[in-house]
Specification:
single chain, six-stranded mixed beta sheet, six-stranded antiparallel beta sheet, 5 helices, 16% helix, disordered N terminus
Length: 477
C-alpha cells in the first residue's frame, strides 16, 4: 500500500480545505502562475518515482447536480505511457466527457499525435468518425495503405491541390489553374499516379507509372458539357479530337435510322446499303431498289426486291421470294420471278415465278426423303395445277383398237389376279416401292390401255346381251 509523508499529506489537506471553503472561485496568479499536480509513489523510505502506466494526475470539473449529489462533467487525465527514467517522462493527456459516465473523447500522445474518437492515434491528427470544416483547408491530404507507416515526405501516396501556371506544366494551357495530384501507390506500388489540371480551357488529365515522379506523359482533355453539342436522339460522333457532335445515326429508343430522323422500322436506311458478308433476316426483307449480296442471303420468311437481286453465295428463303426483275444466284436459290441459276434451286415453302424460271440443274421443292436418278424435278408434297401435260414417246395405247390386237381373256385375268393380286400389265405395289414411285406419263398410258381393253370387253358383252335378247323374243313368238 502506497504511503504519504506527513508534509505532503498536510499540504494536500490544506489544498482540499481551501478548495472546499471556496468552491465557486479559484485563482492562480503571479508573474509566472502555475497549476501543478505533482505525482510520486510512496515506499518504506519515502517518495519513490512513478513507473510506466501510472496516472500522473486528473483534473475534474464537478458540479452540484442535485441536493447532496456532486457529478463530474469533464475530466482531464494523464498517464505515463513509456518507461520512466531521470531524463525521460513520456506522458499523454486524455480528455473525457459524457453522462452519466465519462467517456474517452480525445488524446494527445507524448509524440504529439492527436486522436479524436481514439486515445491511440497513429497520425498527427487521427479522427475516428466524420469531420467538417467551415474554413479553408491548407496542406496535403495524405492517403496511406499502411497505417503503421508515418508516411513519405514527397507527393507519393498523397492527393493535394496547388496553383500551377501552364508554363510550369508544359501545357495544356498557359493560363493559371489548379492541379490535383493523386498518387495512391497501393498494391505494392503497382498502381498508376494521376494528375488533373483545371483552368479556363477545361479539365485535363495525365498519368505515369507509380512513383516515377517525372510526369512526362501528354495531357488529355476530358470532355465536358461545353465540348458536347448534339441533338436529342442523334448518336454523337467526334467532330474534333476533343469534341462531340451529331452523326447520321438516329436512335429514338424504338427505331434506328441512318440518314433519316423519322425511321419507320427498327432499322431504316435512307440510301444505299452494302453487305460484304452474310445476311440473315428472320422476318420480311423488303428492298425497293436493287440488292447485291457478296455472301449468303438467308430470309426465314418473305423477301421482296424491287429491282435486280444478285447474290454471290446461297439464297435460302423460308417463305416467298419476290424479285421484280432478274435474280442471278451463284449457288442454291429460292426465287419468285425470272431466275438464272448456276446450280440448284431449293424451295422450302412457296416459290412464285411471275415470268420464266430456268434451272440448269435439278429443281427440288421441299425436303424429299430421297432424290434417286437424274430427274429434273423432285417435290416433297402434293402438286395442284390447272393443267399438266406429259410428253410421251409415240406409244399412246390406240394400238388396242387395232384388228390384230389380242383381246383380253377374263378367265385368264381372274387367274392372274388371284395369283399376283394386281392387273396384268399394271405395276405391283412392291414394284412401285422398289422404284421409289411411279412415272406419271407411263402410268397414264397403262391405265388408258386397261380402260380401252375393258371398253372392248364391255362392247363384246353388250353384243352378247343384245343377241340373247333377240333369241328370247323369238322364243316367245
Amino acid at each position: 500500500m502506497k504511503q504519504f509523508h506527513a508534509p505532503y499529506l498536510l499540504a494536500l489537506l490544506l489544498s482540499f480545505i481551501g478548495i472546499s471553503i471556496n468552491q465557486t472561485f479559484a485563482q492562480v496568479s503571479g508573474t509566472k502562475p502555475e497549476f501543478i499536480l505533482y505525482k510520486h509513489n510512496s515506499g518504506p523510505n519515502g517518495a519513490e518515482p512513478v513507473v510506466q502506466y501510472d496516472m500522473l494526475g486528473e483534473i475534474k470539473f464537478n458540479a452540484l447536480a442535485a441536493v447532496n449529489t456532486i457529478r463530474t462533467g469533464v475530466s482531464i487525465r494523464s498517464f505515463a505511457t513509456g518507461p520512466v527514467s531521470g531524463n525521460n517522462l513520456q506522458a499523454n493527456l486524455i480528455f473525457q466527457t459524457g453522462a452519466p459516465a465519462l467517456v474517452d473523447r480525445m488524446a494527445i500522445t507524448a509524440q504529439g499525435l492527436v486522436g479524436i474518437g481514439t486515445i491511440t492515434p497513429d497520425f498527427h491528427l487521427d479522427i475516428v468518425g466524420n469531420t467538417h470544416t467551415s474554413g479553408d483547408f491548407f496542406g496535403r491530404l495524405h492517403m496511406d495503405d499502411n497505417p503503421g507507416n508515418p508516411g513519405p515526405n514527397t507527393y507519393l501516396q498523397e492527393a493535394y491541390f496547388e496553383n500551377k501556371s501552364g508554363s510550369q506544366l508544359a501545357a495544356p494551357d498557359p493560363a493559371r489553374g489548379g492541379l490535383l495530384t493523386l498518387a495512391p501507390t497501393f498494391n505494392g506500388g503497382a498502381d498508376t499516379d494521376h494528375q488533373l489540371f483545371f483552368n479556363t480551357g477545361g479539365i485535363y488529365h495525365r498519368k505515369e507509372a507509380a512513383s516515377a515522379a517525372n510526369w512526362t506523359a501528354p495531357w488529355e482533355k476530358l470532355l465536358t458539357s461545353a465540348d458536347i453539342n448534339g441533338t436529342p436522339n442523334r448518336v454523337a460522333k467526334f467532330t474534333e479530337p476533343s469534341k462531340l457532335g451529331d452523326s447520321q445515326l438516329w436512335d429514338d429508343g424504338t427505331n434506328v435510322g441512318i440518314a433519316t430522323t423519322t425511321p419507320a422500322a427498327k432499322l431504316d436506311v435512307n440510301g444505299s446499303t452494302r453487305l460484304g458478308g452474310n445476311a440473315s433476316v428472320t422476318g420480311n426483307l423488303n428492298v425497293a431498289g436493287a440488292a447485291s449480296v457478296n455472301g449468303v442471303l438467308t430470309a426465314n420468311t418473305n423477301a421482296s426486291v424491287g429491282s435486280d437481286l444478285t447474290v454471290g453465295g446461297n439464297t435460302a428463303v423460308g417463305n416467298s421470294l419476290v424479285v421484280s426483275n432478274n435474280a442471278n444466284i451463284g449457288a442454291a436459290l429460292a426465287v419468285n420471278t425470272t431466275a438464272t441459276i448456276g446450280t440448284n434451286l431449293t424451295v422450302n415453302n412457296n416459290a412464285t415465278v411471275n415470268n420464266d424460271a430456268r434451272v440448269n440443274g435439278r429443281l427440288i421443292v421441299g425436303n424429299p426423303a430421297s432424290t434417286p436418278g437424274s430427274h429434273a424435278v423432285y417435290v416433297d408434297g402434293s402438286i395442284i395445277a390447272t393443267e399438266v401435260k406429259v410428253a410421251l414417246q409415240p406409244s399412246w395405247p390406240d394400238y388396242v383398237f387395232e384388228a390384230d390386237y389380242p383381246m383380253p381373256d377374263l378367265v385368264e385375268w381372274e387367274q392372274f389376279i388371284q395369283t399376283n393380286k394386281h392387273l396384268p400389265g399394271v405395276p405391283s405395289a412392291a414394284t412401285v416401292a422398289a422404284n421409289g414411285g411411279i412415272e406419271l406419263g407411263e402410268m397414264n398410258r397403262v391405265l388408258l390401255e386397261k380402260v380401252e381393253e375393258l371398253t372392248l370387253l364391255l362392247i363384246g358383252q353388250q353384243k352378247q346381251l343384245d343377241a340373247l335378247k333377240t333369241e328370247l323374243q323369238d322364243c316367245k313368238r
